Fold:
Amino acid sequence: MLQVRIVCISDTHDQHAKLSAPDGDLLIHTGDFSAFGDTPIEIIDFNQWLGTLLHKYKVVIAGNHDRIFEQHPGVARQLLTNAIYLENSGVELAGLKLWAALH
Structure:
């Protein structure tokens, strides 16, 4: 049987650089990576941080503070290049099926 170590974090509110994320195969950030979420700079900074992590797979789901994903979804998704973004969509990674439903 395949073993996958999943690391799930949320509500880092622009403090992700201070976080020491545990090792794992799959990192899932389940929302509120930004403090205010209305500027591309917050996504750029978060995306750069994601790029430094060694997790093979990275998945991001926007939270209520990540407002730019609602206000300018195309821009937000283009800036998030170091992870798979899920919103009312799914993906299969390492034999796991993941789905994120937002309302």
About this structure: Strands lie at 6-9, 26-29, 57-60, 84-85, 89-93, 96-100.
